Amino acid sequence: MKLVKTLLWVVAAVALLGGGAYILKNNKAKQEQEVKIVASKIEEIVVNTAKLEYKDLSADFTVNGNFEPIQEMTFPSEMSGRIVNVLVNEGDYVRVGQTLATIKKDAIEIDMTQAQNNLQNAIIDNQRYENAFKTGGVTKQQVDNSRLQLKNARAAVEAQGVRVRDTNVKATIAGVVNKRHIEPGSVVSAGTQMFDIVNVSRLKLKVAVNESEIVNLRVGQNVKVTASVLPEDAFVGRITFIAPKADASLNFPVEIEVSNNNKLKAGMFGTAVFSSSDDATATKAIAVIPSAAFVNGVSSNTVFAVENGVAKLTKVVSGRVIGNYVEILSGLKVGAEVVTSGQINLSDGEKVKVVK
Q1: What is the Cα–Cα distance from 147 to 127, expressed in whole angstroms?
Q2: Which residues does 92 contact at the CB level (< 8 Å), separation at least 6?
Q3: Which of 70, 100, 246, 295: disulfide with 202, CB 3.0–4.6 Å?
Q4: Do 287 and 253 share a structural domain?
Q5: Residue 307 sits in which domain range?
């Protein structure tokens, strides 16, 4: 009886073990099947695409900037003294060489008189030594010393003359007095700021152009310019400067000179309209793809081209950026399909599923 019970327990244990193994085997097979299904689903990465095609696009592009004076100067004093007269007010137009203010010069004129007296004495002494040298009364060294003293006396008179002239503060550029920092009675020292003068007869529109567009610009090129506060007016500017080196944002500073019709003010917001044609409305068929197709930006010159359901990392040579499109110079044939979204999940040679 005891033996029979033992046999029953053994049979039950074997049955349990066999059943567990069968279940585990079925679960494993099921999991493997599920993995295969998931793997088959992610083998093809879903992407959007666009084709390289010719489009009639205007090659014009616009860049914004600010107008600045063609010339401006914070006019400093060149000497110390007390201001006697201020001859101009804020808003006055001044010419080159016009006297703006005068500085008290009594002490300087006294120094000038003394220098002139010293010069007269030096002339008389030198003449005496020159005559005595002819008769052998003095040495060559004494004559040379008298000549040197004469030169120094003349230099001292010239120096005092410069100081006297500097008491008349004169404009070195033509323009409008934008700010006056002094009043009669003010005491100034060398370098004291006295006037801000700006020349706005012409203005400079300063803009920054990206690397894909800068190659199409040249100094002397005419540019259409508009101002945000004067939407009805259009101005003709001329490129006067193109920086040979990009700034920290990888753009190239460009300056455009614009004639002022007395409507524009320095500091206003302006827009430069660059065109590759004399006709601002001209269009041209250009082979382009969306800028979104580029991996890590247009500057990478890299896209994923789709061929037979496979994404291939492809190098291209890009040209102008026109709105949301980029000109393709080489690397792709017309009709080539490129990925425009989903690149972040792609690697070279992966299968893709195109969603139209």
Answers
A1: 9
A2: 176, 177
A3: 70
A4: no
A5: 46-59+283-354
Dihedral of CA atoms 9, 11, 14, 20 in degrees, nearest 10, equals -90
Cα 149 from Cα 126, distance rounded (Å):
8
Pairing of strands 93-94, 325-330: unpaired
Compute the mean pLDDT over every residue in the chain, rounded to the nearest whole number: 83
Number of domains observed in the structure of the chain: 3
Question: Which whole-number Å values give the CA distances from 299 to 214, 287, 296, 321, in the listed order?
Answer: 14, 18, 8, 11
Q: Which amino acid is at 219?
A: V
Average pLDDT score over residue span 101-119:
85
Residue 303 belongs to a domain: yes
Residue 16: per-residue pLDDT: 56
Last residue of a domain, one of 274, 302, 334: 274
Cα-based distances in Å from 142 to 59, 91, 152, 189: 82, 60, 15, 41
Contacts of 100 (CB under 8 A, 6+ apart): 75, 86, 87, 88, 94, 169, 170, 171, 177, 194, 195
What residue type is 242 in one-letter code? I
CA–CA distance, 31 with 37 (Å, rounded to integer) = 10
The model carries a pTM of 0.55
Which CATH number characterizes residue 290's domain? 2.40.420.20
Query: What letter does residue 78 receive in the DSSP assignment?
Result: S
